[in-house]
Every structure is written in structure tokens, then in C-alpha cells.
């Protein structure tokens, strides 16, 4: 009991440290972390972080970044919140091996201070068309002007900003610092805070602040459970799996209608899959190929042959996985190939089961009962009851029946069986 109280007290003390530090005049820095695709969820998360850092009086907002890029609209929302922030925003591309690619590069350029860990890279922000491939000059010119304007506002290398859009240029951390694309190189957080300490940041034309970072206490800005789940679902591999397996579940429900479990599971997976696509840079061609694959798989159930339609669906599904998401992110082949093999093989099997079921005689109706032999359990004159094929039946005969008598079914009238005495051999 005492140990539990002590543990709870220690936890409260740790939680109270940032607040106490702030009350004593010590600096605090709000820290956010972004890993993965830039989506509307990330844009909402970082916009809230900027507002919280200003509202709670933090010295700065530190964003630890590792991203392959993402949606242009989400990137612009983040950039706008950074450019209009009333508190210094620091983007740190970390840890080693991380990257600020595509949309991530523009976000880093928009920060008041940009830092990188050794072994990271930044750049490659060429726009990609919705259908994949190259875009027109109009879109490229607009993107170039946008990124160059951001670089100039933050006193960064405008040539680098122009090249990452027009040429897809990307630079390692050491060279990015040398050409002025980012401000400094920092291997860890302590080095970063020490290097930033004392540096001046211009928030707007009339306000310049000096960073107090050396002894700053970091306060985490959590994404939260709901946002975390939404962001986790924004994975092209998960989207492909959900859509493929959801389609398969519905196909099995069509092949073998029952209590509807397959249909329910299929619909849930499809909803999750399309939710993931809603926050990813989707390629229309990939979606069309996905729908074509689903159509061919369903057709295999109604026209089962040697699996030609299923094979066509499998090819279409592979192509869908390759083209589903545009840009630097996409579905891995190690996810596509096993998924397609499982779905394609399962559809062929479902088609064979449907075809076999069609060739069998009906398992219901009076024809199934005619000629069967049963034993009378309860006799009452010419009427009685028998247990046949798992059910109790009322039987009628031309002559009185006796308990234990064996009778043969001649016909079915309504819910009664017409029987006659079984001749002994």
C-alpha cells in the first residue's frame, strides 16, 4: 500500500515539474513528433501544437520529423500555421536515417529554425499528378514560387528551394547545412538545445525573441489515442490489405450465404480501407484497377471455369497495389504479392465450391424423404409420429399403426408424411 502511494506521488511530482519550472521562470519547450505520411491528422496535430505552445507560454515548439511526404493540402495547412506562429517553431529531422522528403522538406523550410541529425536528408518536392507521372508547367511553377517564397521568408537558400521542386533535388544533412538550406547539424537533443540557446528568432517584422534553450524542460505534445489510430490507419499497406481482404470476405458471403458474418467483416474492412485512402495521396488509376479486380473476382463465382477471371483479377490487384498511392510512398511488394496469392487462390476455391453446389440435387423438399424408412415412436390409430432426418414428423397410414412399427414414406402432404408398412425381407 505504501509502495503504491509512493509511486503515485512520484508520478505526480514528475508531471508537475514542467509547470513548476515555468512558474519559477525556467523555460519549457513543447515537443511534437511526426513519423510517417503527412495527412490531415498530422496537420490537425501540429496546428494544435502551435496553438498550445503559444497559449501555455512555452519557449518554443520543437517538431521531431521523419516523413516521406504526403498530401499537398495538409502540408500547406502546416506551413501556414508555422508561418503565422506567435512562438518559435523548430523542426529537427531526426534520428539518423530519417528524412524530410517532399512535403516534409517544405515543412522544414517553413520553420523558424531547421536542424538535421547526421545521416538524414532533405528535398525531392516535385509535384506528382493525381493520376501519377509528371504534371504540367502551371502546377510546377506554382509549387516553385510557393516554396521559394517560404525559403526567402526564412532566409534560406532559394536556389535549393527551387531545385527541390523543379529537379527533385535532395541533399544530405551536412551539405544542407553548408548551403544554407537548414540552420544546424545536431546529433542529439541536448546538442540541439545547446546550439539553439541564445539564437534570435524573428516572429514577424516587429518582434524578435532570443531563445533560452540550454536548460529547457521538454513537455511532450501527445497525438492522443483517436488521432493515433487515425494516423496509423493512414498506411498504404494497411489500406491495400483492408480493401483486398474485405473484398474477399464479401465474395465468400456471396458464395455461401449464411448468417452474414463474412459480409459484416467485409464491409468493416472496406470502410477502414477507404478511410485510409481518404487521407493518402491516392492515384485514380489504382482505385479503378482495384474495382476491376473486385468485379473479376465476383464474376468468377458466376462463371467458374479454369480460373481465367480470377487470374485477371489477380493481375489487376497487383497493378492496383503498385499504382494505388502516388508519390514517394506506396504499397510494398512484400505486402502485395502474398495478399494477391491468398485472395486469388481463395476466389478460385470459392468458385469451385459454388459450381459443385449447383451440380448437386436439392437437399430439401419432399423428394428427399420419399422412400425413407422410419420407426413409429407414438402411435394413435392410423396416425403417429416418427423421427426422420433430424426432425419429428406426423405420419398417416391407411391402417392403424403400432409403436415400434417400421414404415416407409410414400408421399408428403403438407406437413404430414403418408406412410405404409415396411415389408420385411
Any overview of this molecule?
The chain is α/β, with parallel strands linked by helices. It folds into three domains: 2-229, 2-enoyl-CoA Hydratase, Chain A, domain 1, CATH 3.90.226; 235-359; 366-421, Nucleic acid-binding proteins (OB fold (Dihydrolipoamide Acetyltransferase, E2P), Beta Barrel), CATH 2.40.50.140. Helix content is 49%, strand content 19%. It contains 14 helices and 16 strands. The chain has a six-stranded parallel beta sheet. A five-stranded mixed beta barrel has the order 12-13-14-16-15. A three-stranded mixed beta sheet has the order 4-6-7. Strand 13 (383-388) and strand 14 (391-396) form a beta hairpin. Helix 3 runs parallel beside helix 4. The radius of gyration is 34 Å and the shape is elongated. The N and C termini lie far apart (84 Å). Residues 1-23 have low confidence and may be disordered.
Number of helices: 14
Order of helices and strands: HEHEHEEHEEHHEHEHEEEHHHHHHEEEEE
Q: Give, in spatial order, the strands making up the sheet with the most strands.
A: 8-5-3-2-1-11
Spans where pLDDT lies below 50 across 5 or more residues: 1-23
What is the annotated CATH architecture of the largest domain? Alpha-Beta Complex
Distance between the termini: 84 Å
Structural class: alpha/beta
Beta-sheet strand percentage?
A: 15-25%
Shape: elongated
Q: Averaging pLDDT over every residue, what do you get?
A: 84
CATH superfamily of the largest domain: 2-enoyl-CoA Hydratase, Chain A, domain 1
CATH-defined fold name of the largest domain: 2-enoyl-CoA Hydratase, Chain A, domain 1
Largest sheet: 6 strands, parallel
Radius of gyration: 34 Å
What count of structural domains?
Answer: 3
SS elements, strand count: 16
Write down the CATH class of the largest domain: Alpha Beta
Report the helical percentage. Answer: 40-55%
Amino acid at each position: 500500500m505504501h509502495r503504491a502511494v509512493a509511486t503515485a506521488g512520484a508520478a505526480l511530482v514528475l508531471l508537475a515539474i514542467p509547470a513548476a519550472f515555468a512558474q519559477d521562470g525556467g523555460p519549457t519547450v513543447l515537443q511534437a513528433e511526426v513519423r510517417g505520411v503527412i495527412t490531415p491528422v498530422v496537420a490537425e496535430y501540429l496546428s494544435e501544437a502551435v496553438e498550445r505552445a503559444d497559449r501555455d507560454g512555452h519557449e518554443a515548439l520543437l517538431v521531431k520529423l521523419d516523413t516521406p511526404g504526403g498530401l499537398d493540402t495538409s502540408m500547406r495547412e502546416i506551413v501556414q500555421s508555422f508561418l503565422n506562429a506567435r512562438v518559435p517553431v523548430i523542426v529537427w529531422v531526426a534520428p539518423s536515417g530519417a528524412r524530410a522528403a517532399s512535403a516534409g522538406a517544405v515543412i522544414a523550410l517553413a520553420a523558424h529554425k531547421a536542424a538535421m541529425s547526421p545521416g538524414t536528408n532533405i528535398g525531392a518536392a516535385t509535384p506528382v499528378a493525381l493520376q501519377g507521372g509528371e504534371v504540367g508547367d502551371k502546377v510546377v511553377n506554382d509549387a516553385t514560387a510557393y516554396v521559394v517564397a517560404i525559403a526567402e521568408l526564412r532566409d534560406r537558400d532559394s536556389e535549393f528551394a527551387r531545385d527541390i521542386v523543379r529537379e527533385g533535388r535532395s541533399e544530405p544533412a551536412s551539405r544542407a547545412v553548408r548551403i544554407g538550406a537548414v540552420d544546424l547539424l545536431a546529433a542529439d537533443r541536448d546538442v540541439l538545445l545547446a546550439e539553439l540557446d541564445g539564437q534570435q528568432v524573428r516572429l514577424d517584422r516587429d518582434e524578435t525573441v532570443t531563445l533560452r534553450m540550454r536548460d529547457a524542460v521538454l513537455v511532450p505534445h501527445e497525438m492522443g489515442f483517436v488521432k493515433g489510430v487515425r494516423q496509423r490507419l493512414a498506411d498504404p499497406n494497411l489500406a491495400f490489405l483492408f480493401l483486398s481482404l474485405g473484398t474477399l470476405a464479401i465474395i465468400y458471403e456471396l458464395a455461401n450465404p449464411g448468417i452474414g458474418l463474412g459480409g459484416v467483416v467485409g464491409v468493416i474492412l472496406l470502410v477502414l480501407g477507404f478511410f485510409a485512402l481518404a487521407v493518402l495521396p491516392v492515384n485514380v488509376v489504382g482505385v479503378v484497377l482495384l474495382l476491376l479486380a473486385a468485379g473479376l473476382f465476383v464474376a468468377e463465382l458466376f462463371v467458374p471455369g479454369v480460373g481465367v477471371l480470377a487470374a485477371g483479377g489477380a493481375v489487376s490487384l497487383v497493378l492496383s497495389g503498385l499504382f494505388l498511392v502516388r508519390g514517394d510512398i506506396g504499397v510494398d511488394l512484400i505486402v502485395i504479392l502474398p495478399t494477391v496469392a491468398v485472395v486469388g487462390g481463395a476466389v478460385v476455391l470459392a468458385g469451385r465450391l459454388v459450381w459443385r453446389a449447383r451440380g448437386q440435387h436439392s437437399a430439401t423438399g419432399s423428394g428427399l424423404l420419399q422412400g425413407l424408412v422410419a420407426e413409429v415412436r407414438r402411435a394413435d390409430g392410423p396416425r403417429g409420429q416418427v423421427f426422420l432426418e433430424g426432425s419429428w414428423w406426423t405420419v398417416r397410414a391407411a391402417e392403424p399403426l403400432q409403436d415400434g412399427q417400421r414404415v416407409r414414406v410414400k408421399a408428403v402432404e403438407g406437413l404430414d408424411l403418408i406412410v405404409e408398412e415396411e415389408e420385411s425381407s
